[in-house]
Specification:
With 217 residues, the chain is mainly beta. The chain folds into two domains: 9-37 and 52-137, Elongation Factor Tu (Ef-tu), domain 3, CATH 2.40.30; 145-216, Beta Barrel (Elongation Factor Tu (Ef-tu), domain 3). Helices cover 5% and strands 51% of the residues. It has one helix and 14 strands. The chain has one helix at 71-80, and strands spanning 9-13, 19-21, 26-42, 51-68, 86-91, 100-108, 115-116, 122-137, 145-150, 156-160, 170-176, 187-195, 198-201, 213-216. Strands 1, 2, 3, 4, 5, 6, 7 and 8 form an eight-stranded antiparallel β-sheet that branches. The protein has a six-stranded antiparallel barrel with strand order 9-10-13-12-11-14. The two termini are 29 Å apart.
């Protein structure tokens, strides 16, 4: 039985770079965040004990997905197991305009399905380590942005019309209609803006392509 309630949506980019809804497979979606701790002391002459100061560093975030196994689930997660920089979208209350959208990239841990559980249920679990995380609200999807070319590079650099993404930041985008590249880059990726008209996606392109469109979420 899938998670019920607020209309949860949790999407992962498949091995073919297609953003795929996984919430219908899930019985539980766990999340965790922990910060690195650095201990220090304040020098206090004459004090019986110095004052201890705890400083928090980088935050490590993760998700844990679990649910009911099926052949479709097996195919999807087996292909993702061990992959890095996989795009994700987490919408705790669903994807209606105005609802919260959490997005970024993650590394997919070892796939544990199928697991024989008590009562005969066949389940699965898969851990995700979050690399990047952004938060915004769902809006009506903006117009598509024309792509001029993809470069021979790892990661490939896309030259586009003005994309409106802040330089140095990343957003989840969908690319469609791009031709000629090896491998194909049509699909859903994390796009990192280099300039107002260029950006990278995490694909090693060995033959550049042209055309197509990019659409932000």
């Amino acid at each position: 039985m899938a998670i019920k309630g607020a209309g949860l949506s949790f999407k992962l980019a498949s091995a073919a770079y297609t953003l795929t809804e996984t919430a219908t497979w899930l019985n539980d979606l766990g999340a965790d965040a922990s910060a690195d701790e650095l201990d220090g002391t304040v020098f206090t002459p004459g004090a019986t004990a110095p004052i201890k100061v705890t400083l928090y560093g980088a935050t490590e975030r993760s998700y844990s997905l679990s649910g009911r196994w099926s052949p479709t689930v097996e195919t999807f997660f087996s292909a993702l197991s061990g992959l890095t920089d996989v795009a994700y979208q987490h919408s705790p209350e669903g994807t209606a305009v105005g609802k919260t959208l959490i997005y970024g990239s993650c590394n997919v841990g070892a796939w544990s399905g199928p697991v024989q559980e008590v009562g005969g249920v066949i389940g699965f679990t898969v851990p995700l380590k979050v690399n990047t995380r952004g938060v915004k609200v769902w809006i009506t999807p903006p117009a598509t942005i024309a792509i001029t070319s993809s470069s021979v590079a790892d990661p490939t650099v896309l030259t586009t019309a003005a994309h409106g993404i802040t330089i140095g930041t990343s957003e989840v985008v969908t690319i469609a209609g791009h031709t000629g590249s090896t491998p194909s880059i049509n699909g859903t990726f994390l796009f990192t803006a280099l300039t107002s008209t260029t950006g990278t996606i995490p694909v090693n392109v060995t033959v550049g392509g042209t055309g197509g469109t990019l659409q932000k979420y």
